[in-house]
Every structure is written in structure tokens, then in C-alpha cells.
Amino acid sequence: MRRYLFNSKELENNNEIFDVIIVGGGLAGLYCALNVDPDKSVAIIVKGHIDGGSSYLAQGGIAAVTKKWDSFDLHVKDTLIAGAGHCDEKAVRTLVTEGPEIIDDIIRLGVQFDRDENGDTIVTREGGHSCRRILHCGGDATGRIMTETLGKEAQSRKNIKIFFDTFSLTS
After folding, report:
1. Domains of the chain
2. Is 75 exposed, middle or buried (0-12, 13-18, 19+ CB in 10 A)?
3. What is the dihedral of CA 3, 9, 15, 17, to 10 degrees?
4. Model pTM?
5. pLDDT in tens, 20-70
6. In terms of C-beta density within 10 A (0-12 exposed, 13-18 middle, 19 or more buried), how is residue 88 classed?
């Protein structure tokens, strides 16, 4: 199977080989790249720029069980109800139970969630949730702040190279 990257400026006479290639520079792609073993070389293929994707434009927050009044079972229940029968319960349970650890990891990577005067993360209640569990960055700028923060961290890593204005084809 042949694979091609297209970007005449950055790829002209470029014969680099990468251990991992991630297609997409949104939050999922950036977070994935930042969790690859630092001994592996990573290429992130971005069709535009960091500020051009859906992750960057996302205004909502992130739902996770981070407070004592919440529980995994309650979050799973809320998600299954909101999913109206379209959710795989095992997948939902995995996402919900791994959520707090991922939030901690995202904070370690530099993302600053909104905090109160005591330094505790602020959580809000939004549609489909039976209690406050939504974390935000900069109010409704969660996507922009998270994408910019993870993007800067990815660009600072020696093992990660981001190809902007690039797309890939497989034939």
C-alpha cells in the first residue's frame, strides 16, 4: 500500500521516516502524540493550522468525575440516558472511569482549567448531566485554550514534528 503526504513547501526533498504518524492535529491527535514514547519519532499531519479545526472552536467543557459529590455510576447513567440507546455501555464506562486520570494528565501538560478563589477547579452543570461535572478553560474558550496549550507542548518536543497545511493519501 502506498502512502503520500502532500505539502510542496515542507516536504520537497524530504525523506524523513517516522515511527508514528498521526493524522489530525485536534485535541485527540495532539494528546495522542504527547503520550507516545519519547524515544519514538512522531509526525502529526494537519490539513490547516492548530486554530483551524473543530477542537479549537469547541466552546463546551469536559465532563469528568472530579468532585466527591459525583460518581462513576451516576456519570455512566447520565451518559447512557443522553445517548438514547446509541451508546456502548462498556465503552462509556471505560471513558468515564479513565476521565479523572486524563484530566490530571492534561493539567500536567499545562492546561489550566478555571478555578475558584481557593484554587479548586470550577465545575458546572450542563444539559444531560444530573450534577456539576463540566470543567472549562477561560469560560467558553475551552477548545481554544486546550488546543493552543497542547499544540505548544507538542511543538516543544524534540520527537514530534507537525506538518501544517498537509494532507495524506493512501492508494
Report:
1. 1-58+141-171 (3.50.50.60), 60-140 (no CATH)
2. buried
3. -70
4. 0.88
5. 999 999 999 999 999 999 999 999 999 889 888 899 999 889 999 999 999
6. exposed
